[in-house]
Amino acid sequence: MRRLLLALPFALLPLAVAHADDTTVKHGSLGTHEHGTARVNAALDDQTLALELQTPAMNIVGFEHLATTDADKAAVAKARALLEKPLALFNLPAAAGCSVASQHLQSPLFGDVMPADDDDDDHDHDEHAAGAEHHHSEIHATYEFTCTSPDKLKALDLSQVFKTFPATHKVVVQLIAPAGQKGLDATPDNSTLSF
After folding, report:
1. Phi then psi for 33, rounded to 5 degrees?
2. Which of helix, strand or coil describes residue 128?
3. Stretch (H or E) spanning 8
4. How do the pLDDT tens digits run along the chain, 195 residues long?
5. Are 56 and 34 in contact (CB under 8 A)?
């Protein structure tokens, strides 16, 4: 499984490059930053399901600056609590018997230090026009599940992601499963990719 997870970024690199466009900004190791768009990488190997979610913080909490007000701190705490319930967030069927083996959430909004890239010349924001300083913040979540009946995992259903975080309009999904590699630009109306 470890080899599969290490190979995942390299296998998905050509597909990620194909989805990049002129409206995105490159940011460190997290790839592109496009408000409204998130990325999910999934790998199913035997009884282990690994999921990785990368998204601009704007999609999850509605802002990208460090939380200083009580309202901002409450929004970050609520988002973190929702991200800490991946079985519900990813609609994993109970029949698959999946349990969370590990999870890790990382974001500057959670107090983590992540790679910064202040080269925003290609990314126009209203804040730039007003002369305000703007930093892009990401949320990166990794989950590993152990599933007692992985054959019951018929599809990766992201409908709850769209419902939970309505500022997310598209999720670029890459899936590696026993049947092969698949991809989907998921939307609220087309949010399921079969294993």
Report:
1. -125, 110
2. helix
3. helix 2-19
4. 555 554 554 454 444 434 333 333 333 334 566 789 999 999 999 999 999 999 999 999 999 888 999 999 999 999 999 999 999 999 999 999 999 999 999 999 998 654 444 444 444 444 333 333 456 789 999 999 999 999 999 999 999 999 999 999 999 999 999 989 999 999 999 999 998
5. yes
Cross-strand bridge partners of residue 102? 144
The H or E element containing residue 143 is strand 138-147
Determine contact, residues 143/98, Cβ cutoff 8 Å: no
In this structure, what DSSP letter does residue 153 have?
-
CA-based angle 15:13:59, to the nearest 5? Answer: 75
Q: How far apart are CA 114 and CA 108, in angstroms?
A: 6
The domains of the chain are located at 2-18+36-113+136-194
| HEC letters along 38-86 | EEEEEEEECCEEEEEEEEEHHHHHCCCCCCCCHHHHHHHHHHHHHHCCH
The residue written with tokens 């800490």 in the block is 84
